[in-house]
Specification:
25% of the residues lie in helices and 32% in strands. The chain is of the alpha+beta class. The relative contact order is 0.18.
C-alpha cells in the first residue's frame, strides 16, 4: 500500500545530509542505531531460568525524558540520545522532526521519531515508517484508541533484527501539530505493552 506523502517528507527531513550525499534508507538508520546500542550492552554469563510462567515487567518505569517541547516516560537508568546529531552534528533533532534512541541492560532498545504535520489526525503513516519492512512483523491486531484527545495506534511486533530482542511493540499518535512514533525491541513479548502504556501515560507535548 502506498504511503502518504508525510512518510516521504519524514525520510527527506531526517536523512538528507548537508554534503549532498544520497539519501539513506530510514529503516537502515534504525537498524544501525539498534546494532550500535546492542553492541554497547555489556555481555555476561547467562543464568538459566526455570520459571515457566510470565513475570512482571522487569523494568523500573520511573524515567521521564523531556526535550524538544515534549516529555515521554521510559524505564529509569536509560538515557535517550539524539540519533540524528550522532549521524551529523549539523542536522540534530529539533521541534519539527527528530529521532532519539535509548537502550538498557538487559537488552532493551527504544526508538522515538516525530514529525510536524499540522492538521493530521491519522498517525498511521508514521507507524508504517518506524516499522522496518525487512525485520519487523506485526504480531497482533492494531489497537486504535483515543487517549487524552490523542489518536493512538499500537501493535505488538516480532523482529529478526537481533536474537537478543525478538519481540517488541510499535505505536504512533498525534499531539498538537506533530505526529509521534515509538518502537521497542525487547527480550520478552509481555514487556512491550506495559512499557508503551507507561510511556504514553507520562507523555505530554506543547500544543
Amino acid at each position: 500500500m502506498r504511503r502518504p506523502p508525510y512518510a516521504v517528507i519524514l525520510i527527506l527531513l531526517l536523512c538528507t545530509s548537508c554534503f549532498g550525499k544520497a539519501t539513506p534508507d530510514p529503516n537502515q538508520l534504525i537498524r544501525q542505531a539498534v546494532a550500535a546500542t546492542l553492541a554497547a550492552i555489556p555481555t555476561s554469563t547467562s543464568i538459566p531460568f526455570s520459571t515457566p510462567y510470565p513475570s512482571p515487567t522487569p523494568f523500573d518505569l520511573n524515567g521521564l525524558f523531556c526535550e524538544y517541547q515534549f516529555c515521554i516516560g521510559h524505564p529509569s537508568g536509560m538515557a535517550f540520545y539524539d540519533h540524528l546529531a550522532s549521524l551529523n552534528p549539523q542536522t540534530p533533532s529539533q521541534y519539527n522532526n527528530g529521532f532519539i534512541v535509548a537502550y538498557k541492560v538487559p537488552a532493551l532498545v527504544i526508538n522515538v521519531i516525530w514529525l510536524q504535520a499540522p492538521g493530521t489526525a491519522d498517525p498511521q503513516f508514521l507507524l508504517d515508517t518506524i516499522l522496518d519492512d525487512a525485520s519487523d512483523t506485526r504480531a497482533g491486531n492494531l489497537d486504535v484508541k483515543l487517549v487524552r484527545n490523542m489518536n493512538v495506534m499500537y501493535t505488538p511486533i516480532t523482529t529478526t533484527i537481533s536474537p537478543d530482542v525478538p519481540f517488541g511493540g510499535a505505536a504512533a499518535w498525534t499531539c498538537g501539530d506533530r505526529v509521534f512514533a515509538w518502537k521497542v525491541y525487547a527480550p520478552e513479548a509481555a514487556t512491550a505493552g506495559p512499557l508503551f502504556d507507561e510511556a504514553l501515560a507520562r507523555f505530554m507535548c506543547n500544543q
